[in-house]
Amino acid sequence: MIKAGVIGATGYAGAELVRILMNHKEVEIKWYGSRSYVEQPYADIYRNMFEIVDAKCMDDNMEELAEQVDVIFTATPQGFLAGVLNESILSKTKIVDLSADFRIKDVATYEKWYKIEHKSPQFIEEAVYGLCEVNRDLVKKARLVANPGCYTTCSILTAYPLVKEGLIDADTLIIDAKSGTSGAGRGAKTQNLFCEVNENMKAYGVATHRHTPEIEEQLGYAAGKQILINFTPHLVPMNRGILATEYATLKKKADGSLPTYDEVKAAYDKYYAKEKFVRVLPKGVCPETKWVEGSNYVDVNFVIDERTGRIVMMGALDNLVKGAAGQAVQNMNLMFGFKETEGLEMVPMFP
Amino acid sequence: MIKAGVIGATGYAGAELVRILMNHKEVEIKWYGSRSYVEQPYADIYRNMFEIVDAKCMDDNMEELAEQVDVIFTATPQGFLAGVLNESILSKTKIVDLSADFRIKDVATYEKWYKIEHKSPQFIEEAVYGLCEVNRDLVKKARLVANPGCYTTCSILTAYPLVKEGLIDADTLIIDAKSGTSGAGRGAKTQNLFCEVNENMKAYGVATHRHTPEIEEQLGYAAGKQILINFTPHLVPMNRGILATEYATLKKKADGSLPTYDEVKAAYDKYYAKEKFVRVLPKGVCPETKWVEGSNYVDVNFVIDERTGRIVMMGALDNLVKGAAGQAVQNMNLMFGFKETEGLEMVPMFP
Amino acid sequence: MIKAGVIGATGYAGAELVRILMNHKEVEIKWYGSRSYVEQPYADIYRNMFEIVDAKCMDDNMEELAEQVDVIFTATPQGFLAGVLNESILSKTKIVDLSADFRIKDVATYEKWYKIEHKSPQFIEEAVYGLCEVNRDLVKKARLVANPGCYTTCSILTAYPLVKEGLIDADTLIIDAKSGTSGAGRGAKTQNLFCEVNENMKAYGVATHRHTPEIEEQLGYAAGKQILINFTPHLVPMNRGILATEYATLKKKADGSLPTYDEVKAAYDKYYAKEKFVRVLPKGVCPETKWVEGSNYVDVNFVIDERTGRIVMMGALDNLVKGAAGQAVQNMNLMFGFKETEGLEMVPMFP
Amino acid sequence: MIKAGVIGATGYAGAELVRILMNHKEVEIKWYGSRSYVEQPYADIYRNMFEIVDAKCMDDNMEELAEQVDVIFTATPQGFLAGVLNESILSKTKIVDLSADFRIKDVATYEKWYKIEHKSPQFIEEAVYGLCEVNRDLVKKARLVANPGCYTTCSILTAYPLVKEGLIDADTLIIDAKSGTSGAGRGAKTQNLFCEVNENMKAYGVATHRHTPEIEEQLGYAAGKQILINFTPHLVPMNRGILATEYATLKKKADGSLPTYDEVKAAYDKYYAKEKFVRVLPKGVCPETKWVEGSNYVDVNFVIDERTGRIVMMGALDNLVKGAAGQAVQNMNLMFGFKETEGLEMVPMFP
């Protein structure tokens, strides 16, 4: 039984971490960090936890916390962890960071897209990008894991095998992503009010969303070259779920023909057949966010459009689970040598 | 490890049973009965079960099923179980019936409200009404459990302590209940289409809903007399959740005053303080369906209105869990001597 | 063509006023008051008004505004109008107040429920309670109309004929009301975020909601005596719509029997047969909020429960139209001698 | 005052026609055709029309109907109008067909995508594609107008100026469209049940949706050549609204640079500045479906992505209004010489 601390435990991702860790056999939460609610009972903020979590919220003192726990999850605003991290902390505890602070290897890129100065660039190289299915072995040895973004996880896993196998021209990649509203966080903003979101849909952050460089960097590694893509996020009137619809031009084979369904399917299977949490759906079945709700699954599939020579790839996940807290726990399992699926065997809830 | 069969496994309640039993350590599902989908892979009907459930749907042959399993869950239309049940079946297997067939002790009452003939009245007396918190000891010894209705479970548990303790005049009880749409089942009816339910709210079955006599019978036992109540169900644009708002006149004490908050709270605590799945919320906190979603909890609370001398009681549960499949598993746990909470420790999912 | 000013034009009720007045032949809006957005183009706040409303938001200077317009609508927080009203203003312009400042005749009652001091008690007597169907003749002559609350309009109109005709015992009245979330206003509060409201339902303000004394006062006039009722509001995951489900004990006739359907129906028809905006639905049809969405209609109906001797009354309206802005325009039409339905003939939008 | 008949008046598009025509000064509906509900009062099917529409549903006898009215709207399944149309009918009445029967000029293309035989190819050439903003002059003279599809209207109008002006490479066009559920019609299908759609999102008909060739044909005319595009529709948990997000590669200018914002904006303004129903939003403002709900507006805008050399175009409309019934009325207005905006000046409803 290890001890864990959660900083940012009263945000939606932090609360999902708490939900998942409650049913994890190897972990006990010792610290519910929430700057806004210090000293208030956690279950007063999240009433679903009434009679389940008995603790009070604590502050975000990482130094003190590092003394007490084996792992810290930081579900915090951009810049928080980079602002406080030091070797002393990292020598005492492992960290899974759900913010973007250590996801991007190039500091200039980070600072350009996030518009803040990076305060701890010295830890960037060490940080492991925690996309478990891609970086499993590195995660196992990591002290500091940068947990991928929600859009990013979905976007990358949906296209990864085809980029890696060179079946598509990575520079033609266009990602049209749709997210439930929990991705916008729990801040009290007019634009996230029920009446503004319900019966509504919109794109936002067009050509400027911060998950773009993260996707480009990771898929660039797979492509073996730097790539530029289009990524457009949309807000959908639902609580949970991300659906990524991705378009790319298929590379023609030597004989000028397009890859076949079976050839593309084989690429997906090569990377995902043994992956518990990535499900390549049967031919003709489109992923739906509801089929993964509450679970750590990513469902993916594809359709080849012979007319245009493009492939349409689709991926669906729960943004708070595989897109945040679930993947964070999966990373923790790897870091501590637990069964990778421990605490994550929730069956998707339908309806 | 016992073996279970589910008849009606492709309805919403049946599918929820499957979801819950997947994470139950003592049970293995051997039979996914679904007359409409015989021979089709179960995961083709419920895609959330892809790579989780590998079985095909089977028919609803109770005779054959009884040979193979230790317990049968019937999540079937009214009249099905009463139409096929016999001593041979019951001698081989235990049954938890999620339909209304054996909930009502008086055949005439059943036939009047359900407008069908009861084909197996000989088993009515034996059947135990499976409201675990009230009938725990009887359930433990039962072969045949009548699992309570969703509205009923919520309505009864919300008022039970006050009726039992005589704090309210049971004949003044008015139950205004609101349900998510999964309670209407998965049948393809125009009235349950997204566009008809979304952004809409209505009462239905006013003064004629079939859960009325079930509530009256059970609360009548608690009151020690026959009672008549008003029960009005409403359809709400959400998938899951029942909220019951209940009104009753408080009985005045000998000195003519109303019972105090503490006195009423003590009545709730008397019956629920030790109950894992019933949470009496802190003073002033109203139950919300979202706080129990996906879990087996019922949250209850109350407000005394000094001006009118009435009490307003409120209860919330997930209609597919504590209102159906979760309670069915809780009953099974009692019937087989498992830990009562086994498979039911899901933390409510929020948001 | 008269000139109108709207104070609070960027709240939901104010914006609905703007929407309705855009299609009103006799009115031109000259002043879009919004303290929070002074000098910003109105269509920047409400993008639906792009290329429709060209004006900028102005402040809430009632003195100045009174010089310029024939009528002022105040869709403002409690206390605003009472804080600034004076005879000079009222001598220059008519006012329809959508706040509660002048709805309640007894200052002490107002101050008790609203917990603020009333700054202009001298205008309370003059103010006409603008429930058009009840007070039409008084409204026609009024300078100052107190536009009824959304819950109140629905609650009163649903029960009014039966109270007025003495068919029910008014003290047994219990009103269980459900509202869409626009009723909570556009303020950025965590509790009104999409993720908190969606897939959720709750009661709030139990026994303490401010519309209670307003209902009691108005139905008390109809009953010819002071009455006390229970009123419980609920928040529903939809944008618009209020559904009131009301319970009362029917008075028995001289022979001890209950009033018949026809007798009750006759009471409704007596008051509503000629009312354009109140629709008494056919027997057996329950009101649904979606059937009145976007329109000024109130749909009402009832079911007699012979078993309990109670009647269940139901009413549905759009809280922003008949529950706020529509009724305000209806009042203005009466005050200025326009056709009562002018600008209000919107057909309900379905789905 | 002309007389109109609506065939398919009880589908969602038909009902929206009825809603709009109720407030149209020049038209009276004489025939509410609905094969499924013949002889039933129309207001029994659409309760929002209670006390507004007094008529009963009639059959779909076009011959008889043509004798009685000046214009027929056919909001019918594919193949209906082509199956019954003849010169006799067309000589007596004008027709606005909301189905796809006469939208596509090439019969083979129609039969390939719709998988039914076209029974009246002789009228295809005469039929005018009723995209008012593009074909206004032809519509004015037409007897038979093929009203565009909902996805199609949104998709075409969003990209039209750039295709027409040659600013983008039309063959790179990728349209990712999202629709509310009313687009799926009122048929009682499991997949359209509230619980299946709510809290869910999916793509469907990937690479095979029938609106694809319609978009390709019309944008091909604008491009002056045949084009092939990708079109992916998605189902969103809302009643109304289509959002199209469209991607294309910008053609570089002679100096190798990309077109500027102002140059692209000028292209949009060239075609839409005088169009009442197409609103080009201010720079940086993304269209949202809620801002056009209930109205005949299409909101469009764009973002140039300098990094990838692509443009992201966005368009939003109400699928039942500008995407169906509103545009049908706009076409009728043109055909009969009424004011083009008559009956269509509804202000979008928010929230």
From TrEMBL, chains A, B, C, D:
Domain Semialdehyde dehydrogenase NAD-binding: 3-142
Catalytically driven reaction(s): N-acetyl-L-glutamate 5-semialdehyde + phosphate + NADP(+) = N-acetyl-L-glutamyl 5-phosphate + NADPH + H(+)
Molecular functions per Gene Ontology: N-acetyl-gamma-glutamyl-phosphate reductase activity; NAD binding; NADP+ binding
The keyword Amino-acid biosynthesis belongs to this UniProt entry's keyword annotation: yes
EC number: 1.2.1.38
UniProt cross-references to SMART domains, sorted A to Z: Semialdhyde_dh (SM00859)
PROSITE patterns with a match to the protein in the record: ARGC
UniProt-listed InterPro entries: AGPR, AGPR_AS, AGPR_dimerisation_dom, AGPR_type-1, NAD(P)-bd_dom_sf, Semialdehyde_DH_NAD-bd
Predominant localisation class: cytoplasm
GO BP annotation list: L-arginine biosynthetic process
CDD domains according to UniProt: AGPR_1_C, AGPR_1_N
Cell compartments where the protein resides: Cytoplasm
GO cellular component, one term: cytoplasm
Keywords carried by this UniProt record: Amino-acid biosynthesis, Arginine biosynthesis, Cytoplasm, NADP, Oxidoreductase
Catalytic residues (positions): C150
Pathway participation: Amino-acid biosynthesis; L-arginine biosynthesis; N(2)-acetyl-L-ornithine from L-glutamate: step 3/4
Family statement drawn from the similarity comment of this UniProt entry: Belongs to the NAGSA dehydrogenase family. Type 1 subfamily.
Function: Catalyzes the NADPH-dependent reduction of N-acetyl-5-glutamyl phosphate to yield N-acetyl-L-glutamate 5-semialdehyde.
NCBIfam families documented for this protein: argC (TIGR01850)
Protein's name in the database: N-acetyl-gamma-glutamyl-phosphate reductase
Taxonomic source organism: Roseburia porci
Source taxonomy: Bacteria, Bacillati, Bacillota, Clostridia, Lachnospirales
Gene responsible for this protein: argC
